[in-house]
Design goal:
Elements (H helix, E strand, L loop, with lengths): L4 E6 L7 H9 L4 E3 L13 H10 L22 E5 L3 H10 L5 E5 L2 H20 L5 H22 L6 E4 H6 L1 H12 L23 E7 L3 E8 L3 E3 L25 H12 L1 H8 L10 H14 L4
Parallel strand pairs: 1-3, 1-4, 2-3, 4-5
Antiparallel strand pairs: 6-7, 7-8
Helix pairs in contact: 4-5, 5-10, 8-9
Length: 305
């Protein structure tokens, strides 16, 4: 059996839904998604281990500890998916291993911006005892997102790479998973048939559902072990959270949404911002319109010499 190939899931930053996507991908029997620390020289596997693996398939030590849940036999997988590595790191390896696919999560920039407002203003106040203004967060967000997209535009190859639309993924998980599985050339698996987390990784006991307070702000049912308590993923990801798509549109009711939408229209174009405002992702099932809009945007960022 051939050793697993390497793919990379890339995002501009956290808070874009990567845990949700990675957990679903981990449910496929032929795909193994990794922790953010994997191959990052952060106490586990190192950057050197990745170079060795790509060059001669030397299996890194303690590799099984680097995967997300539910754990599987890694060597029998077809793919190992790196968890949000720096894009420049992947670009470096693609010079020598051009067959590494990039899976890039794209989210409505207006909605994504408001996520930053909620997340980073609170973080700055708690961590640095400083409240940053909305305008400061906007400039920070614009720089971060656009830097990532500019770098992506220089390397994106539609033959090997894939844009994951977060809004499509949430509303039509089977459809978006199918596109990812097709790009990686693995068998199609429906969302309901994905491998699920059902046992405690410490003691092996079956997990049950229990209602608790998550992040000190909301009550949710989570997986729970009688011996080791709540069982959550990275970033306190709730494996059984009962989501509904209403949160995708909360940005429409912000007091400054008209002003912010105009700013993003100047960056991404009115058509792309209107696509999300009109919720066209609900009718653009095959993503033909979105793919054209994003394709044109990335083409405009690409430097041709």
């Amino acid at each position: 059996m051939a050793p697993p190939k390497i793919a990379a899931l890339i995002t501009a930053s956290g808070g874009i839904g990567s845990h949700f996507v990675l957990h679903k991908m981990q449910g496929h029997p032929d795909i193994c998604t990794l922790k953010e620390s994997a191959f990052r020289s952060m106490g586990g596997t190192t950057k050197r281990h990745l170079k060795k693996y790509l060059s001669d398939k030397s299996w890194p030590p303690h590799m099984s500890q680097e995967q997300l849940f539910p754990k599987k036999h890694m060597r029998s997988s077809q793919w190992m998916v790196l968890n949000k590595p720096p894009l420049k790191m992947i670009n470096y390896h693609r010079v020598f291993h051009p067959d590494i696919p990039i899976l890039y999560i794209f989210r409505n920039p207006v909605s994504f911006y408001y996520t930053w407002i909620n997340k980073w203003k609170e973080y700055g106040e708690r961590r640095y005892n400083r409240i940053v203004s909305d305008s400061e967060v906007f400039e920070w967000f614009k720089t971060t997102f656009m830097s990532s997209l500019f770098e992506l535009a220089q390397t994106f190859n539609s033959e090997t790479d894939h844009i994951i639309s977060f809004e499509h993924f949430f509303n039509d998980t089977d459809g978006e998973l199918g596109k990812i599985f097709d790009k990686l050339e693995v068998s199609p698996v429906k969302n309901k048939d994905l491998i699920q987390v059902d046992r405690c990784h410490q003691c092996g006991r079956h997990l049950y559902e229990k209602e608790i307070l998550v992040r000190g702000e909301r009550t949710e049912e989570v997986l729970h072990c009688t011996e080791h308590g709540k069982f959550l993923g990275p970033g306190e990801y709730n494996y059984i959270r009962k989501e509904n798509s209403s949160f995708l549109n909360k940005w429409k009711y912000k007091d400054d949404v008209v002003e912010i939408s105009k700013k993003f229209s100047n960056i991404f174009g009115l058509d792309l911002v209107s696509y999300y405002a009109d919720e066209e992702y609900l009718t653009d099932k095959d993503r033909s319109k979105l793919d054209q809009l994003i394709g044109n945007f990335l083409a405009g960022l690409k430097i041709e010499i």
